[in-house]
Design brief:
7 helices; elongated
């Protein structure tokens, strides 16, 4: 059945859409599920002999008001955004920790003098940051799934804490990684023409773009007093 585009169902869905913030695809999926539920209710009332207008009115009233519905939908959006961020962060952390040293193997400067102690300390700190990010990503992935299924206040608060910690860890990672890259170029001019270094820089830049987008969706979906459950 197709509900009148100007009917109460569409009005309620537009109101709900305006209150929700999160990943576009997940938001569209949630609204589609809500539309199907409303249309099924309208069809059931129509089969009972009601007019379309009255069927829509009853279906919408039974479905609930926007103020009542928005927190639950928003919590699910935030959980989905956290899962997406955690998955991307975990993948990037694994790649960088596993393949980071490969960009330097065989380089013309690898057999030369050891880098300064500060450089080595920053490199070790960056590896530690990515280890923490990987741990937070695993926790965020688990909490995001549990929060979406159970929706308990404790799980939601824990998921939010981990999500903010993961975002902070990623910010620390990009700062430390940028500093290490700049220091590397200053120490070894040939780094800018070393193919593995160029490929690595392109891959890391693309990964950071994807992570920044996911982090933005997470922050948008989890912020604000309107989402009391989070």
């Amino acid at each position: 059945m197709r509900v009148d585009q100007e009917g109460r169902v569409e009005d309620r869905l537009r109101e709900l859409s305006g209150r929700l913030h999160g990943p576009t695809r997940l938001k569209a999926d949630l609204l589609t599920e809500a539309r199907h539920a409303l249309e099924d209710a309208v069809e059931a009332y129509r089969e009972g002999g009601l007019s379309r207008a009255e069927a829509e009115r009853r279906a919408v009233a039974e479905f609930g008001g926007v103020a009542q519905l928005a927190p639950g939908f928003q919590a699910e959006l935030a959980a989905g955004a956290l899962r997406g961020l955690a998955l991307r962060a975990l993948a990037v952390a694994w790649v960088l920790m596993a393949a980071g040293d490969l960009t330097w193997r065989g380089s013309s400067w690898s057999a030369g003098p050891r880098p300064p102690a500060g450089y080595l300390l920053l490199s070790a700190a960056l590896n530690g940051i990515w280890g923490v990010i990987a741990g937070l990503a695993l926790a965020g992935l688990l909490l995001g799934m549990l929060a979406a299924r159970r929706g308990s206040p404790g799980l939601l608060r824990s998921a939010r804490t981990v999500g903010h910690g993961l975002t902070g860890g990623l910010l620390a990672g990009v700062i430390a990684g940028g500093a290490l890259f700049g220091w590397s170029v200053r120490l070894w001019d040939a780094a800018l023409t070393w193919p593995p270094m160029i490929v690595g820089a392109v891959v890391v830049s693309a990964a950071w773009f994807a992570l920044a987008r996911s982090a933005r969706w997470w922050l948008l979906s989890a912020r604000g007093p309107r989402f009391a459950r989070w």
